[in-house]
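Fig. S4 source data, part A: sequence.
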Amino acid sequence: MKRLHVHVSVEDISRSVGFYSALFATQPTVVKADYAKWMLEDPRVNFAISTRGREPGLDHLGIQVETAGELHEVYARMRAAGGDVIEQGETTCCYAQSEKSWIDDPAGIAWETFHTTGESTVYGDGSGENQARIAHEKTSACCAPRAATKPAAACCE
């Protein structure tokens, strides 16, 4: 069975662990000085936070699989979705050993698909992720013309 993966970059691990533990009504399954992970069953999601992102906010999304067969099935879906698939292969990341690939969705959000094969005592050097991310690096929109803003509306009107 597959599991949705969400990774959020945070500035303060302790404060964020407290927040998400209350939100999910459970403690993380993994806690390190720079990383925490909740393996939730309802909803079925691998939710991770770390201080290793470029800036606070959504870092990436993904699909975690339980078998090599499922991994190849999702790899085929990535290729069918279009875009450049960055095959990272076997790596150590997020205190785990895994095999993974990356793709950007049409909105520019990085998606990884991965099969975890074991634990690691180190976060990992990030070299594979960095190469995948550099390949997907977007130009900054800071200087692009801004669309006209609309007045904010109440959500439930």
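Fig. S4 source data, part B ends here. Residues 138-155 have pLDDT under 50 and may be disordered.
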